[in-house]
Every structure is written in C-alpha cells, then in structure tokens.
C-alpha cells in the first residue's frame, strides 16, 4: 500500500499522512483518522523512502565479537533494550573475533545509512582509527578505551590486580597467568599488567610471571593450562583472563591430580553464570555488562540527538565487584 492509498482511506491529503509519519503538526481529528487507517490496513512506511525524505533512519548497527559469549550477550541485551525503548531497530553483526570483519561491517553500515553504531571492538588498528574518525554516523565503542571516540569500558587492570592480591593472600607464590592476545588491550594487556602489578606490590618478581595465551573459550583454557603445567610444574596460583578459560584450566588441573583450592588457587574474570555451579565454585570479578550496554546506548542516543553538533568525547569506565568463591 502506498501513502496515497492510505490518505484516500483516511480521507486526508498525502501531505497530512507525511506529517503524521514524520511527527509534524496535525489536527487531532486527522491524526485519529490516519491512526485508524494504519491499524485497519497494517500500513508500513517504506524505510528507505522515509530516510531519503527526512535524512534519518531508525536503524542502529551493533557490531559484536562473539554473540555466543555470555558477556557479549549481556552487553547486547542492555544496549538493545534501551534502543528499542526509543524506537530504534538493531542490526546485529557478529565478527567471530575477527578485526577485519569489524571493518567490513563498519563499511556495510555506512552504505546502509544507519543512525549510529555501537562497536564492541577487539583491537584498534590504524584502519580502525581511520574509519572511526571518518564515519558519517556517530559511533560508541563498548569494552575498550579508544580515546578518539566516545566509549564505555571496564576496569580490567583493577579487577586482575585485586584477584591476584587475593590469590597471594592465600599464600600462593608460584603464579601463572593464562591470558589472551595483547592487541586486545582491555582483556589482554591491561589484565596481564594488573596481575604483574599485584605481584610487585607483594614483593614478588613480576618478570617471573609465566604467561600462556589462549583463545576466548574452554578448549583454549585446557590447552593453555596443559602448557602452563609443562613450563611451571610448581604452579600454585592461576589467574585467567576470562571465566571460560578458567573452566578449561580447572578441568586440566583436576585431571592432573591437583586439588583446588588445596593445591592450586584459580580465578577468572567476567562472572559467568556457570561459575556458581562448577566444582569448586569459581572466584571471579563481576563486570556490569548489561549496564555497559545500557550506558553505551544512552550515550549514542545523546550524540544522535545532537545531530552532529560538536561536544565532549565521553570516556566512561565502569567498576567491578570481586566474587570470592571456593576456587582460591
């Protein structure tokens, strides 16, 4: 159905229908007739045509690294809830932790003329910097601190530091760290630095930290723990960059005959729901992922409302809560 046909059914002009759809001034009588005609016919305005007329769209792009991740799904839930309440539809793009796919989706959303984008980025390359700087739509980064654009991120350094302090407080001195690629500054570099800073604060040599990197999954945690045991058989404390990695590490420790927490203390980061149900229950850092998504969405809505007007680049760091359970 066209706008002209809808106008005929409502017994108004096409211009009146256009004003109704675009929030223009209109008498209450005409507004009610148009509303009834829309309900009767199920009329849906053409999104592309509306974008060409108004220069706006009700679509927001959401680029995420791994939708199956518990943390990513929670950020996504928070962001989409806030955006949907304001009438925006989210176009979800899953990159499988591939920075090249992040760039490809940014280009795709540019061609589709979205109103804005929330990017849960993994790394910041020169090409990322260029695209973020020149994007024709507002972008908010979630999960990383990118100084060039508005962002919402977590205190990764502080969380890893506090967890390591608790491990050391249990008398552990032979500490290993299972991390992720350090091009991922938040989960990789900052968390490893937090572990080493805690070691230094307690008189341990931070350069002696044995580091093994892993993918962001349980299988990677298993492989990394096996390698860590080869390199450091005397390990009595293991700090893991994520909960999923910690789950894999704990499985290998059990298979090797190491008791937790009697022989080895283990921690993760992220507070996955499964940490409450495995044995022993996992000590971890709770990040406020849903709040992160909500904050990123509200920040994006605020920028979109200003329609390109210059303003400050907001950098929001969220806190964390240490959840101490049985594994340390």
TrEMBL record:
<keyword id="KW-0238">DNA-binding</keyword>
<dbReference type="InterPro" id="IPR028082">
    <property type="entry name" value="Peripla_BP_I"/>
</dbReference>
<keyword id="KW-0804">Transcription</keyword>
<dbReference type="GO" id="GO:0000976">
    <property type="term" value="F:transcription cis-regulatory region binding"/>
</dbReference>
<feature type="domain" description="HTH lacI-type">
    <location>
        <begin position="1"/>
        <end position="54"/>
    </location>
</feature>
<dbReference type="InterPro" id="IPR046335">
    <property type="entry name" value="LacI/GalR-like_sensor"/>
</dbReference>
<protein>
    <submittedName>
        <fullName>LacI family DNA-binding transcriptional regulator</fullName>
    </submittedName>
</protein>
<dbReference type="Pfam" id="PF00356">
    <property type="entry name" value="LacI"/>
</dbReference>
<dbReference type="GO" id="GO:0003700">
    <property type="term" value="F:DNA-binding transcription factor activity"/>
</dbReference>
<dbReference type="InterPro" id="IPR000843">
    <property type="entry name" value="HTH_LacI"/>
</dbReference>
<dbReference type="InterPro" id="IPR001387">
    <property type="entry name" value="Cro/C1-type_HTH"/>
</dbReference>
<dbReference type="InterPro" id="IPR010982">
    <property type="entry name" value="Lambda_DNA-bd_dom_sf"/>
</dbReference>
<dbReference type="Pfam" id="PF13377">
    <property type="entry name" value="Peripla_BP_3"/>
</dbReference>
<feature type="domain" description="HTH cro/C1-type">
    <location>
        <begin position="1"/>
        <end position="44"/>
    </location>
</feature>
<keyword id="KW-0805">Transcription regulation</keyword>
């Amino acid at each position: 159905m066209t706008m002209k046909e809808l106008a005929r059914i409502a017994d108004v002009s096409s211009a009146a229908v256009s004003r109704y759809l675009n929030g223009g001034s209109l008498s209450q009588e005409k507004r009610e007739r148009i509303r009834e005609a829309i309900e009767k016919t199920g009329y849906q305005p053409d999104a592309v045509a509306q974008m060409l007329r108004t220069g706006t769209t009700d679509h927001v792009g959401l680029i995420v690294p791994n939708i199956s991740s518990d943390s990513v799904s929670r950020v996504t839930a928070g962001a989409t809830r806030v955006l949907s309440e304001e009438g925006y539809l989210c176009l979800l793009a899953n990159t499988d932790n591939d920075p090249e796919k992040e760039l490809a989706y940014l280009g795709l959303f540019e061609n589709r003329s979205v109103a804005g984008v929330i990017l849960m980025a993994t790394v910041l390359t020169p090409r990322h910097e260029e695209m973020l700087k020149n994007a024709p739509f507002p972008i908010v980064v979630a999960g990383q601190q990118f100084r060039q654009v508005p962002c919402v991120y977590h205190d990764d350094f502080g969380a890893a530091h506090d967890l390591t302090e608790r491990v050391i407080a249990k008398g552990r001195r032979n500490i290993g760290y299972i991390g992720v690629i350090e091009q991922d500054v938040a989960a990789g570099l900052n968390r490893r630095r937090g572990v080493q800073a805690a070691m230094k604060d307690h008189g341990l040599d931070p350069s002696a930290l044995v580091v093994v990197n892993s993918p962001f999954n349980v299988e990677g945690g298993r492989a990394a723990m096996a390698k860590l045991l080869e390199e450091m058989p005397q390990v009595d404390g293991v700090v893991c960059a994520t909960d999923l990695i910690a789950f894999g590490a704990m499985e290998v420790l059990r298979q090797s005959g190491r008791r937790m927490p009697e022989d080895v203390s283990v921690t993760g980061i992220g507070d996955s729901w499964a940490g409450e149900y495995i044995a022993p229950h996992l000590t971890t850092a709770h990040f406020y992922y849903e709040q992160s998504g909500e904050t990123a969405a509200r920040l994006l809505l605020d920028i979109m409302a200003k329609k390109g007007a210059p303003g400050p680049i907001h950098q929001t760091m969220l806190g964390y809560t240490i959840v101490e359970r049985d594994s340390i």
